[in-house]
């Protein structure tokens, strides 16, 4: 299984909850298996595991809608993103999305703040998450929110983290084990379907 993980939400902002969650989960998953990291222009590579990576535009860029085609070209089997994404269009790979909500830094330009508002509106979040094969949350409250916006029959799984505010891999090992199984099951389901 060629797994791709979206690491473009990892920033140098210590107050960025999505970045902390992403770092912890990414490092815990890297202890279990190899994957290709998607990085963007502002991604902190030094905060990520020593794994292969592909450079893509920022997830806030209009070019994000072309991500599906780019990942098709590198042979991705499954992609995991810690936040909803517009990149599911035209994809030929499995897609697992977590319910993280990106936040703007205090000194962020108004253009970035405006684009990040899309992740806060239930309608746009629902449009992004409905393109996924599986949605994962990192808390019961997040799971309830994701269930509200999910499509009928769309699986929603809660990952069990010891401390969702931590960026330490040890707090995310149980979540990484669950996530890995979700990714494997999705890949197996897709392979079985393609043979029939």
Structure explained in plain terms:
This protein is an alpha/beta fold. It has one domain (3-195): Glycogen Phosphorylase B (Rossmann fold). Helix content is 35%, strand content 14%. The protein has six helices and seven strands. The chain has helices spanning 17-30, 67-73, 110-116, 122-129, 140-149, 173-195, and strands spanning 3-6, 36-39, 53-55, 78-81, 94-98, 134-137, 156-158. A seven-stranded parallel β-sheet has the order 3-2-1-4-5-6-7. Helix 1 packs across helix 6. It is globular, with a radius of gyration of 15 Å. This is Glycosyltransferase family 1 protein.
Order of helices and strands: EHEEHEEHHEHEH
Given as residue ranges, the uncertain stretches (5+ residues, pLDDT < 50) are: none
Mean of pLDDT = 88
Which structural class do you get from the secondary structure elements?
A: alpha/beta
Which bin fits the share of residues in helices?
25-40%
Number of strands: 7
Strand order, sheet with most strands: 3-2-1-4-5-6-7
Q: How many helices?
A: 6
What's the level 1 CATH class? Alpha Beta
Report the sheet with the most strands, covering strand number, pairing sense and barrel closure.
7 strands, parallel
User: How many domain modules?
Assistant: 1
The CATH topology is: Rossmann fold
Distance between the termini: 19 Å
CATH architecture assignment name? 3-Layer(aba) Sandwich
Shape: globular
Rounded radius of gyration (Å) = 15 Å
Protein name: Glycosyltransferase family 1 protein
Organism: Mycetocola zhadangensis
């Amino acid at each position: 299984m060629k797994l791709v993980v979206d690491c473009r939400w990892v920033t140098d902002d210590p107050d960025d909850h999505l970045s902390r969650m992403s770092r912890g989960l990414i490092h815990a998953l890297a202890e279990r298996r190899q994957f290709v990291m998607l990085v963007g222009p502002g991604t902190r590579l030094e905060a990520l595991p020593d794994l292969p990576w592909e450079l893509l535009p920022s997830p806030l860029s209009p070019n994000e809608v072309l991500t599906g085609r780019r990942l098709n070209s590198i042979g991705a089997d499954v992609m995991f993103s810690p936040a909803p994404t517009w990149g599911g269009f035209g994809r030929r790979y499995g897609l697992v999305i977590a319910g993280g909500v990106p936040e703007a830094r205090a000194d962020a330009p108004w253009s970035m703040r405006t684009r990040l508002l899309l992740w806060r509106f239930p309608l746009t979040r629902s449009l992004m998450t409905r393109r996924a094969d599986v949605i994962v949350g990192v808390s019961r409250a997040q799971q309830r929110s994701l269930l509200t916006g999910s499509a009928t029959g769309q699986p929603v799984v809660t990952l069990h983290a010891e401390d969702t505010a931590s960026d330490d891999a040890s707090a995310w090992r149980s979540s990484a084990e669950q996530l890995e199984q979700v990714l494997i099951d999705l890949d197996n389901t897709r392979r079985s379907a393609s043979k029939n």
